[in-house]
Input
Amino acid sequence: MQSFPAVDPIPLPAPIWLLKLLHIVTLALHFVAVEMLLGGLLLAVLLSLFRNSPQSRVAARALARRLTVVMTYVINLAVPPLLFAQVLYGRALYTSTVLIGLYWISILGLLTLTYWLLYRFTARLEAAKSAWWVGLCAWLLAGCIARLLSTDMTLMLRPEVWSKMYSASASGAYLPIGDPTLTPRWLLMLAGGLFIGGLWLMYLAGRSTFTADEKRFLAGLGGKVAVLFGLVYLAAGLWASAVQPGTVQAGLLNHPLYRFAGYAGEVWLALVGIAVLLAAVAGFGKIAAGWLSWTGVLLALLIEIAFTLYRDGVRDLTLLSKGFDVWNRSVETNWWVVGLFLVLFVAGLGVIGWLVSVVARAQKPMEQEPMKGAAS
Ligand code: HEM
Output
């Protein structure tokens, strides 16, 4: 029986390699923002729960103030990869999304609620009120969204269960069961959140808006969190890789194209290892140097790119083993449109760079001061 729906007869408007490149770049940026949200929020919750020093209160508030901004990046950087994924993998992705449609559509409500709770969390911290339980609710909701997205991204790789699921419930109210790759993959994202959250604290330690005491606290805590969860992240990555089917693992080693995704997996391992060593220097030496902050940022970015490349290889090889070849599509490139898109894409990046530079040059208050206009 043919598992995948018939291919759309309209050819793709751009080369597949270009669509994949844009997909991987934008998805890696989505993952950086997602990890900052998942990890930074949980760290802010824990810091506000055990607020046993003035530094921990300042650190919780500093993270919370930035999380509402991070959320805008989570959402805006989610749209481009969603569009590219639909173009490249629509037949698999639409099917899995429709099969869990009720849960998928609930993401909109969950997301709105998470966003609102983030604002409440920040406002309560600014007003020195108990806030951890509000932040915890936001984190649990964000974790649910991550779980639903992992469910969708793994279900799209299992055409063999689609018709059984549809027979069980055509209303999209039935979640798939029995996929050994789902939980490791979701936990990998959660562990990565705390690892990136630790690197984020190390980055903050290099900012001039903190006092020397606060910088030492941020570097010490951030470094230790990044060491611990860097190791958990490595273990979760090895687990998520080990549960992949044999054909996928063999393809990552031998396939002429996808062995490069296999190399990306090795690069990921090496980069996380380097970041853990760097974090140990910051964490145990309580060193808050600018070079440590920026190296951590660069490593976080490279780690997410390597992760996304590896994950892309896993997806393509799994689909290939089931008869879906992402490269097998007719293409009718409209170079004018592609050119216009690229010009606008680069201009958009330029505008974002300019906005970031304006924010960087603006005079900033010290972090201990309550933020003006924060409602209680
Ligand atoms: C709190 C908000 C969000 C969280 C925590 C989150 C988390 C995640 C996670 C964990 C994954 C990886 C799933 C996996 O492969 O196992 C993912 C992928 C993805 N997310 Fe998000 N996400 C959020 C918001 C959104 C939004 C609003 C959208 C849609 C506009 C979105 C679109 C996507 C897409 C399309 C992918 C997969 C793309 C691909 O594999 O090609 N995300 N997200």
Q: What stands out?
A: The pocket of protoporphyrin IX containing FE is lined by residues 27, 30, 34, 37-38, 74-75, 78-79, 81-82, 85, 111, 114, 142, 145-146, 149-150, 153, 185, 189 (CB under 6 Å).
